[in-house]
Amino acid sequence: MKREKAVMDNCIFCKIIEHKIPAQIVYEDEKAMAFRDLNPQAPLHVLVIPKKHIPTTLDIAKEDNELVGHLFQIANKIAEENGIAGRGFRLVMNTNPESGQSVYHIHLHVLGGRLMHWPPG
Ligand code: AMP
Known about the structure:
Elements: H1 5-10, H2 12-17, E1 25-28, E2 32-36, E3 44-50, H3 65-81, E4 89-92, E5 108-112
Antiparallel strand pairs: 1-2, 2-3, 3-5, 4-5
The structure holds adenosine monophosphate.
């Protein structure tokens, strides 16, 4: 995959994709990757990301629809493999500052292994 160097250099998740900084990778294929969150908010907290650099959900183009669906398939697989699919888990994608988005490369949080509360904080 052709990667824009300027983007890669500024994006921490692009660096993880390029194996330039370490992460606890739990899944990888040619289009996506999943790794453990550095600051877990639940017993299971994994981030599923596309290898394509997409800054926010607002930047998801029609051509990315299959890729975004793929991220959800990976999240489901991770929940199943960790034995929490039936109990329940939460999938979150934050968009822009008021949501708390801190890394501008879309990522699906997979949170589980404890009771989740609603409304979220
Ligand atoms: P968000 O606030 O929705 O943008 O989520 C970004 C998430 O990335 C946070 O939960 C961080 O703990 C996590 N994070 C930031 N840097 C790393 C890293 N190098 N490895 C793993 N997770 C990270």
